Structures are given as structure tokens and as C-alpha cells.
Amino acid sequence: MRTTVISDLHLGAHRAVDVLRRPGPLAGLRAALAGTDRLVLLGDVVELRQGPLRDALAAALPVLAALGETLGPNGEIVLVTGNHDHHLIAPWLEARAVPDPPPPLGLERRLTVRELERVPALRAIRDAVRPARLVVAFPGVALRDDVYALHGHYLDRVTTLPSFERLALGAMARVVGEVPEGRGAATAEDFEAGLQPLYAWMHALAQSPAGTWSAGTQKTSASTWKVLAGDLGDRRRSPRELLLTRAFPLAVGALNRARIGPLSADISAPELRRAGLGAIGEVVWRLGITAEHVIFGHTHRAGPLPGDHRHEWLVPGTGARLWNGGSWVDEPVFSGGDPDGPYFAGRAVVLDDDAPPRLERLVAALD
User: Fold this and answer.
1) pTM of the model
2) Which pLDDT tens digit goes with each residue over 199-240?
3) Count of domains for the chain
4) Start and end of every Calcineurin-like phosphoesterase domain (predicted)?
5) Residues pairing with 133 in the sheet
């Protein structure tokens, strides 16, 4: 069996950055899926933070239908949710807790046919991908005895990068508690305890007339990162930008003193990579994942790539090898338009029956 893993499609995103709604990249992906028996959509498949659910699904379903048609009646599509599409799984999480305390989530729980039927958005996706069969797994999925895959947004609870979500989750931890440390000491529920309230608020906001705020916030965040990371090319910083770069470390220090962290004021491109890998390694450690290979998404940073330090892609203490297929979002601020760059869209992690996973470029042209 051949399995292809892609993540972070963000279908329905504003500014048309979701490249699979463009005819060329979608055709390229469909061609590359020839011979694939199982397609894993590893989270942030649908962009649910930038507007109403109905609009996001209207944008996403034609793409998902094309992928289902490509795999055909013998194919399987596995859907794992992330942070931007967490609401797809939220109704199931709520329903399973009524009327009795639910059984532990563990590392993989697959929705039954009846459970899927009760969630309208998942039912719409199931119908769209026919004739392929839809499987919904949460919080991750074992693809082989030695390969486990999850979106990776749990890392936001332990990363040192001072992102909006990390700050919000740091504050939330004052209420719900920190994620237990130690190998195998934490459960999916421990991570979800801080994430679910934040995601519910963000989803509710997206359904309101002000729901497009997230798209503008993401664009501003990318521009701010260029300034703080010093990635301005030959351009000199403006007085306002100079003030921002001087104030930022002070603000991070204040947050650390307030016990929101630990956070780092270093947000350079190398540190983005290191912090993401360190945090997902911590998630693997705390959840007690024993697989030899762990595939994740979320950071949009593909790897390991030629030139990467391979030891960074190993989980300390377990030796598990980390793999990330990047994203299917056109982000020139991060990618620089270079198809060989780590943030350039169009990659996947491909898995056969016996060999280790491998990172492949499936699409090179994004127009």
C-alpha cells in the first residue's frame, strides 16, 4: 500500500493563498497521486478561522471531491484535524462526553459511521470524497506499526516561540494547568484542555461579521516577522520598526516573568525551525509515542531537507525520526518564491509498505 501524507491545505483561505484551489497545482497533485492507495490529510485541511463555516466548506468541497475522484472506489482518505479546522471534530468531542465520562482518547480514535453521520461538516466531506472512503481519526493516526502521524498543533502549548496562540495558551494554562512533563506523562486530553476553549472562541468569532480579522492578522504577523527577524534585504528599518525591534525582547522578558513562557525573543528562520522541532519532540515525549517515525505538519516547514542538520530531526530520548511535508499555501514572505526553499508549497511525505518515509515534491508550479 502506498500512502501519501499532505497537510495544511487551508482550503477557503482569504487572499487565495490555498494553492489547491488553483487549477494547475490541483491537476499536478492529482497526477502525482497515481498509484496512491491512501491519502492522509493531516490537519488544517479547511480554513475555518477566516469566515463562516459554510463559506469555507463551499470553497473546500470541490477540491476534496477532485481528490476523492482521483483515488477512486478502492482508495481511502484519512482526515486528521488541526488547529484551523478543529471545529470539524469539536461536535464529536462534545457529544462523546454526554451523558457519561468518555473513554480516553489515546493516540488514535476513529469515528464510527454513526458518529461521523452526526457531524454535518464531516458528513459533507464524506459525501464529497466519494467514491473514495473517508476515515476520520483523532488526535492522530498510526499508518504503520512504526509510523505515527498527527497535525502537530499540540506543540503550541510547549513551544518557546511567542506566537499569538502560544501567549493565549500560556495564559490559559494558569486556569487549566500545564501539560504534565515526563515520558508518557501526558494524554491528548491534557493538551486539549487548553486548546479547546481557545479554538471555540476563535471559531465563534469567525462566524461573526468580524470573522475576517484573522486573515488580516496573519498578513500583519508575516510582515512583523520580517522586521523582527531582520529579513528586510537591503532596506533599512524605519524609526517605528527600530522601536519595535528594541521593545520586543523587553516584552518577551516581561511575559517570562509573568510565567506565560518560557519564551524566546529569537524568531530568526533557524530558530523557527529549531523551536518547532524541539516542541514537537516534547509532544512526542510527553504523549509516550513509541513509533520510529513521526509525521507532522502545522509549522509549514518541510523537512528534513538536504542541508538540514539531521540530529535536529530526531526526538531526544527516543530517537524517533521526524518528518514534515510542509504546506499547500503560497507564502512568499517565508518561501521567497524558491521551489527548493523549506516553506515553498507542494510537498508530501510518501510511505510504502516497508521503507522509511520519504519527502517528495509533488508540485513545483503554484500558478
Assistant:
1) 0.89
2) 998 899 888 776 555 555 555 455 555 545 555 455 566 666
3) 1
4) 1-154
5) 76
